[in-house]
Amino acid sequence: MRCGGSTELDALLADLGPRIRRGERVREPLPRCATGLAEIDRLLGGGFPRGRLSEVTGAPSSGRTSLVLALLATLTSSGECAGVVDWADAFDPPSARSAGVDLRRVLWVRSRQWRDALGCVERLLATEGFPLVVFDLASAANEAGARLDSEGERSSTNWLRLARQAAATRSALVVVSSERLTGAHAELALEMRPTGARFTGTPVLLEELETEAVLVRHRSAPEGRVARVHLAARSAA
Hints:
Layout: H1 6-16, E1 32-33, H2 38-43, E2 48-49, E3 53-58, H3 64-77, E4 82-86, H4 93-98, E5 106-110, H5 114-127, E6 132-136, H6 141-151, H7 153-169, E7 172-177, E8 188-200, E9 205-218, E10 226-232
Parallel strand pairs: 3-7, 3-8, 4-5, 4-6, 6-7
Antiparallel strand pairs: 1-2, 8-9, 9-10
Helix pairs in contact: 5-7, 6-7
């Protein structure tokens, strides 16, 4: 359509009024790393987003380890590789194997030096060969928190740098801890809260853990939503 002048254009705009919509760039959904746990995958919109930093928190025996092992099992069973930077020294290969993790596709890095551990996460992200990198601080969260407090503003810079690195290489970075550490740099944060347990056998052994996964942070979805899951006791830490 050709408009003869500003008066004609103004009249057209006035006539269209609220029907005018400004063009916007269509955002493609982020690819996901599924956990294989249907309830949690629904809660997260398909799993943990690739190219983003996510966080899983919870007390001991809350199910956080079971969740991570399920995530690793689903990823490695599809033929992809994952990196685990185990600053907490908590990764147990037999439990992982029992949970279905293909250990041949997991690069396990054990580091008790804080700066080295951060550097290892960066290097794994930078290789672009790991669609999933897990940074496990769970059983050492108090020590990690103290280190971060001592670093002050630099701690925020660390998480920002890792979040940007994950975005650049399209890797899912999942930080595991007993309490929130990554702040606003996490795309989402999931808190595991145990609600019950089932015991069987003689002697009595823990068979299954009931837990709630609570979405305590999400940049693009309502927070506070809950998924209730049942987790096998062999990896329910």
